[in-house]
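Q: Okay, next protein. This is Acyl-CoA thioesterase from Paenibacillus chitinolyticus. I've checked the sequence twice, so it should be correct. Can you predict the 3D structure?
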Amino acid sequence: MESKFVKETRCMKVARVFPPDVNNHNTMFGGKLMSYIDDIASISASKLCRVTAVTASTDSVDFLYPIRPSDSVSLESFVTWTGRTSMEVFVKVITEDLVTGERKIAATSFLTFVGLDENNKAVPVPRVIPETEEENKLYETAEHRAEIRKVRREASKTFADFLLTKYPWE
């Protein structure tokens, strides 16, 4: 399978923050931003593997600065690393005050996607080749994040064995 450059998976989304997008603190709803994150990450994953890509996990979403109605929000995503059938996608969220022009990294996120064939079976995905300093840093640190994901996933499976499936009202 042929490798692809990270830049071939890069996607951008820019949106204005409108009043229905904010909570009672007058900042963007976290769930709205998380929806944007999953959406753009899925496009980057699909651009790498060119099959259906599904979210295996949202590994982290770190909200660093509030996003206000006077801001635009820009999301940049790209595949940072691949396993045999999985892909790590990084999403950087930049907020820009549309009056002052000040920009900040408002959030960062890592997600894992898996490519599926027509029978919903995981398929091998191409490797990625980083080029920029940012891409190389994310690539070099990805295996450590993958190990953490593996441990966390096993702990989640074990924990799930203790959870009830019965509804509280039953």
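A: Here is a summary of the prediction. The radius of gyration is 18 Å. The first strand starts at residue 4 and ends at 5.
Q: Noted. On to the next one.
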